[in-house]
Prior knowledge:
Elements: E1 2-3, H1 9-12, H2 21-40, E2 44-45, E3 48-49, H3 54-103, H4 109-133, H5 139-145, H6 148-154, H7 160-177, H8 183-208, H9 213-238, H10 242-263, H11 276-290, E4 305-306
Antiparallel strand pairs: 1-4, 2-3
Helix pairs in contact: 2-9, 2-10, 3-4, 3-8, 3-9, 3-10, 3-11, 4-5, 4-7, 4-11, 7-8, 9-10
Amino acid sequence: MIVRQRVGWLKMLFIWKGSVLKKIILQISVITLFSIIVLLLHGRIYEYKVTLNPTIFTLIGLALAIFMGFCNSASYDRYWEGRKLWGLLVIETRSFTRQVLTLINSSSPEADKEKKEIIKMVSAFCWALNYQLRGKDGREKISQLLSAEQFERIKDKKFLPVAILDLIGKWLNEQNKKGNIDTIVLSLMDHQLNQFSNIVGGCERIHNTPLPFAYSLLMHRTVYLYCFWLPFGLVDSLGWVMPLIVLLISYTFIALDAIIQEIGEPFGEEENDLALNSICRTIEFSIFEQADIPQKDYVPANTYFID
């Protein structure tokens, strides 16, 4: 994910990172070249003059803009819901860490060690969810946060975040049996685990249910058909400036199509997807600091970074 401070209007014109231009530059170059050919041939295909009324493109463009606006809203809703779920995860992990540190009535060195192991397990849960959503094998990172025994118990599981929550739940049950927490506190902390489960389920819902393919297909086809037919409708009325106008219009529509596809899958690793690695690092630093667990220096996101 790209994060940067606002810059001047002139610099904004030349920003490359974070722009979808590099993904669509071939398409708009082909359309512009095609427009130049149409201009040189005066809108003729062999001996046949292709005559298209510009009004037709006005009507189609209006309908296309409305449809793309709908798809853009749907994609951004998915993106924003994903961000809210991960923002809630930051809050819930800090709350659960506080509960582990303050509500469990045991202060022996062995008990303190167990608490720190559980807090590391919470960090492992966040990283496991990150890797699951991105379809990556994060066992190496997770093994660094869990004990050898804990990792051995979950390493072959398919849904690692859920398996880690099960380990945390069993530990809480053991603390209840030992008398370190009463039933009320156990219920309270179990509610936190349920919140973690809800977050996992919400993220899986977004990840496993993309925008309907028929919408994407229709929008993609219509955008390109519109852009390739547009030169024939403007060549007689605009003359030599027509390729520039087609370039501007095609850039707008094709870039928006690319943005819709990109943010519609918010858990990916493209420049405008959610910064899951950075969120996980923030969670890890925050809860480790609460528990006085040694860690490497944390560098917060400043003016610019790519997750």
